[in-house]
Amino acid sequence: MTGPDTPDFPHFEERRTRLLAAAAIALRGYSDVLVPLGALFTDAGHDLFLVGGSVRDAVLGRLSEDLDFTTGARPDEVVALVTGWADAIWDTGIEFGTVSVRKGGLTIEITTYRAEAYDRVGRNPVVTFGDTLDGDLVRRDFTINAMAVRIGPDGAQEFCDPLDGMTALLAGVIDTPATPQESFDDDPLRMLRAVRFVSQLGFRLAPRVIDAIAEMNGQIERITAERVRVELDKLICGEHPIEGLEIMVDTGLAERVIPEIPGMKLTIDEHHQHKDVYQHSLTVLRQAIDLEESDPDPVLRWAALLHDIGKPATRRHEEGGGVSFHHHEVVGAKMVRKRMRALKYPK
Fold it and tell me: Are 190 and 184 spatial neighbours (Cβ–Cβ below 8 Å)?
């Protein structure tokens, strides 16, 4: 029997062909940049690949003006190649092999093939430069982010997918190139990134990824509050934040980074209209999203989600079987302020 995770699910080849054709059309819209950039590297004897999220988004029809590339050229060679072509060059990431440039309205990052080793204490890797595209792709977080497109003097030329990220993308599944345990040991932030992609893309996590997050959620404490905050904001502003939040709660990850959310599961709503305050708060979040008229509003969404977090601490059982939550809004406001400070939100 075949399932949605296999290449034999209905219309796989047809859908694959259609999406690749759409991606090729999207990339042709960037030919004025891809063609000369590809020529610069080809003429110098170096490969150049569009890679990672840029390829994923091209396939999904949501390519942005931020493009990521990888190459066998070393960072100093990259700087030399783009000097005179780029409108601006930044080398702030050159220690990690990344050269950033601006060309027209595009922001471009070109990173030398990397083969990373982690001390599994902090998050930052010890970077060594690699020599192959395959070696660079296998170190990436998820298979949907491990696809590449060769860029030559004629622009986009060849789709490269050694880890079968297209199958995962077509199935809507987030999985890791290596085992999830190995991937999350290397970089625990990937647990939160996995949930964030659920929110942004509407995908689901592979069962082994869910199991690994539940097993390893304590490792997220190796990550700085600032990096956690960035991922949480991206999650709450996704198209499917409720699905992401429920995974965080179910796996115990929320307990590690924003425990006030699972804490709401302890309290029954006084109107008995919802299973508990947690479910009520998800409903309010859903209603707030429906009221948005343009871009996602992170302040509105956080306020909707956290408006009742003071109820567990203020619950009182009244005579006659009633329940009260006097001053829960005051207590909740203090709790929100404390949590936002812990996550290093600016004032």
Answer: yes
The residue among 144, 171, 198 that closes a domain is 171
Q: Domain containing 281: what range?
A: 180-342
pLDDT in tens, 68-103: 999 999 999 999 999 999 999 998 889 889 999 999
Identify whether 167 is part of a domain: yes
Q: Rounded to an integer, what distance in angstroms lies between the CA atom of residue 232 and that of residue 228?
A: 6
Q: What is the Cβ-side half-sphere exposure of residue 268, based on CA atoms within 13 angstroms?
A: 9
Question: In terms of DSSP bridges, do strands 173-174 and 204-205 run parallel, antiparallel, or are they unpaired?
Answer: parallel
Give per-residue pLDDT as tens, 190-205: 999 999 999 999 999 9
Query: Residues of 182-218 as b/e, b for ≥16 C-beta within 10 angstroms?
Result: ebbbbbbbbbbbbbbbbbbbebbbbeebbebbeebbe
Residues 6 or more apart whose CB falls under 8 angstroms from that of 299 comprise none
pTM, 2 dp: 0.86
3-state secondary structure of 98: strand
